[in-house]
Each structure stands twice: as structure tokens, then as C-alpha cells.
Write a structure and sequence with these properties.
- By secondary structure, the chain is of the alpha/beta class.
- Helices cover about 45% and strands about 15% of the residues.
- Strands 1-2-3-5-7-10 form a six-stranded mixed β-sheet, with helices on both faces. Strands 4-6-8-9 form a four-stranded mixed β-sheet.
- It is globular.
- The model has no long low-confidence stretch (mean pLDDT about 95).
- Bound molecules: 3,5,7,3',4'-pentahydroxyflavone (QUE).
């Protein structure tokens, strides 16, 4: 089966039909997704959709620290800086893939055994079964690179309990497998030690209905434990229900908890433009269906790649490695309502 080196596609015979197996294979960059990977994944999903032998699709990654750390932001940076007219297609092709996964008519199973951020969430969370291990670290970290939580986050963050999605999208917080399970971002938690047994056991399995697969993964399930994140739900709901980023930060600083003060510190180092756009984006996303969310995100991406902070933010993360970014505008009060509204206009 055709594949490029960064992503491997296999169609494997099982007891009752074939499995389509996708393996991310760029471990040196935490399996960051480049444009060619989006296109080949799209191509294979369409092919397998119409291939009656293929009963289910499963996506996983080569052994390493990550499932997928996101999009290939280094390449996006270089293409944007060089004025590459194809850069908008990098995002629209990524979001189209997210839509294909959301609407996929066959079981789409994601094995999240490591870091899963941004674009990695987009190729996993919209599937029908999301399996985590204790090595899962999840985040939507885009406000830290002068971007916004994309890949369908308008949809899935805005549907989390209370203000949890707004907290995750604004703060870029990293959360663990129990947090994700309790929030419903994943469906099952299994042991990392068991991951290599999943595909061989699935090939021996015969019931690929939603119910059949649920009982398959129940056999691997670890006992539930409480989520540390959910213990902060009341603080999050109180502080993030304010009407502006400025008021959210004031509420966090005035709340009598060290945890809230730390969240306020985190917000203060993010791009002011990203924070304000994300605030509006998630409000709007709550009322839109998935495809309308993707349409809004395409528009937002087209504006962000013309802006300043996206380049300063990526430079800080992948080129300067830790040098803090310089945001323009630098202060929240300098980002006007007019500036924000412009991001939502064609
Ligand atoms: C925000 C992001 C990304 C990020 C950091 C952010 C992102 C991404 C990576 C990344 C990918 C490969 C690597 C690496 C980082 O980091 O999308 O070190 O090897 O792909 O704050 O959106």
C-alpha cells in the first residue's frame, strides 16, 4: 500500500474483514503533521471509505514520546515568511481532513499513547473511539504561538462542561488521561503496556459495530481515578464567566487560590490578540455545527497567518527555543473590538 515515510498506511486482513492502519512516523519532531501527511491521510481515508473490505480504521504512532504534537509549525513559519501563496491551503487541507474524520462512516479509532496537541487532537478526537494511555498529555497550546485553537476546537472545546473549554483554549494548559476521560475528550484509558496488543487483538475480533468495539475496549480498560483538573471546575466556571479577558484575569488574581493566580500568570504571557480572538471564537462555536466551526476557523487562520504574532510565537518555540515572543500589540487594552471583529470578516 502506498505511503510516504512520514506516515505509513497498511491494510491488514483480520478474522472478519480488513483494518486500515495508519502509523505516524516522524518521531524526531513528535510526529508533527506536514502538508503531505494531511493530503495522503485524506486520500487513504477516502479510499478506505469506499473499500467494502475495510471494516474500521485505526490511527497510532511509532514508539516514542508523542502521538502527535500538532502541525508542522516550523514549515508553516518558513512558508509564511517566504510569502508562499500555498500556506492557506496547509490549513484548509488540514481542516478538511478534520471534517472527513468527524463525518467518517466507519469506526475511526485513535490510540493516544503520548503527547497529543493541536493538530494531533484534530486527527483523533473527532473519530468514533478515542483510546488514551497514562502517557497522554493533551493541550490546545495555540494562544502561546500567536494562533488560536483550531482543528475543530471551536466545536469540541465550547461543548465541554461549564467554562472548561474556554480555560483550556485560552491558557494552553496541559492535562492528563484522567482529565480527558472525565471530560469526555477520550472514551477509554488503557495501560501503555497493553498498546501493542490492541491491533493484533482487533484483527482477531469480529464485531466492528459501535457496541462491539465498546465492549472490546472495555476489556482493556483501567479502573477510573479522579481527575485533578475537575477539582478546579468551580474556580474555572467563576473566573472564566467574566465578559472579557481583562476581567477574567482580574477574577483569577482576586480568587483566593494559588492555582488561579498561576492561571492568571499563564494568560499574561499569551498573545493578547490570540486571547481576545479565542474568547469570541469559542462563544460563537458553541452555537455552530461542526462544519460551520471549521468554516469560521478557516477564516481565522487566513487572518492569523497575515498577522504578526503567529511568526513571533513560532519563532519563540521552534527557532529561539524559549526566548519569549514579542507580541504586537503587547497589551490587552491595545487590542480593540474593531481589531477582533476584523478576524471574523471575509
Ligand atoms: C503550540 C503549537 C505547537 C507547538 C507548541 C505550541 C504545535 C507543534 C509543536 C511542535 C511540534 C514538533 C516538535 C516540537 C513542537 O509545538 O502545533 O518541539 O518537535 O506542532 O505552543 O500549536
Amino acid at each position: 500500500m502506498a505511503s510516504n515515510m512520514d506516515i505509513i498506511f497498511e491494510k491488514k486482513a483480520g478474522k472478519n474483514g480488513f483494518l486500515g492502519i495508519i502509523t505516524l512516523n516522524r518521531p524526531q519532531v513528535l510526529n508533527a503533521l506536514n502538508h503531505a501527511m494531511f493530503l495522503s491521510l485524506t486520500h487513504h481515508l477516502k479510499q478506505w471509505e469506499h473499500d467494502e473490505e475495510v471494516k474500521a480504521v485505526i490511527i497510532t504512532a511509532v514508539e516514542g514520546r508523542a502521538f502527535c504534537a500538532g502541525g508542522d509549525i516550523r514549515s508553516a513559519y518558513e512558508r509564511g515568511k517566504a510569502g508562499d501563496a500555498e500556506l492557506p491551503n496547509f490549513f484548509t487541507d488540514e481542516y478538511r481532513l478534520n471534517q472527513i474524520i468527524y463525518h467518517y462512516p466507519k469506526p475511526y479509532i485513535a490510540l493516544l499513547d503520548g503527547i497529543t496537541m493541536g493538530g494531533g487532537a484534530g486527527i483523533s478526537l473527532h473519530g468514533s473511539l478515542r483510546i488514551a494511555t497514562e502517557r497522554l498529555i493533551f493541550a490546545m497550546p495555540e494562544t502561546g504561538i500567536g494562533f488560536f485553537p483550531d482543528v475543530g476546537a471551536s466545536y469540541f472545546l465550547s461543548r465541554l462542561p461549564g467554562k472548561m473549554g474556554l480555560y483550556l483554549g485560552l491558557s494552553s494548559a496541559r492535562i492528563n488521561h484522567y482529565d480527558c476521560l472525565q471530560l469526555g475528550l477520550v472514551d477509554f484509558v488503557i495501560k501503555h503496556d497493553m498498546v501493542n496488543q490492541v491491533i493484533p487483538a482487533l484483527l482477531q475480533y469480529t464485531d466492528f459495530t459501535a457496541l462491539g468495539l465498546t465492549s472490546f475496549f472495555k476489556n482493556f480498560m483501567q479502573p477510573k481515578q479522579t481527575s485533578a483538573l475537575l477539582a478546579h471546575q468551580d474556580e474555572i466556571d467563576f473566573c472564566f464567566s467574566k465578559n472579557s479577558i481583562e476581567d477574567i484575569i482580574i477574577a483569577l488574581e482576586n480568587y483566593s487560590s494559588d492555582w488561579c493566580k498561576e492561571v492568571a500568570q499563564q494568560l499574561k504571557i499569551k498573545s493578547p490578540t490570540s486571547l481576545k480572538v479565542t474568547f469570541k471564537q469559542l462563544q460563537l462555536g458553541a452555537k455552530l455545527d461542526f462544519d460551520a466551526c471549521i468554516e469560521m476557523e478557516s477564516l481565522l487562520a487566513s487572518h492569523f497567518i497575515k498577522g504578526h504574532d503567529f511568526y513571533s510565537g513560532i519563532k519563540s518555540v521552534v527557532i529561539d527555543k524559549g526566548q519569549p515572543p514579542i507580541w504586537k500589540p503587547a497589551y490587552l487594552h491595545e487590542v480593540t473590538m474593531q481589531d477582533i471583529n476584523h478576524y471574523f470578516e471575509k
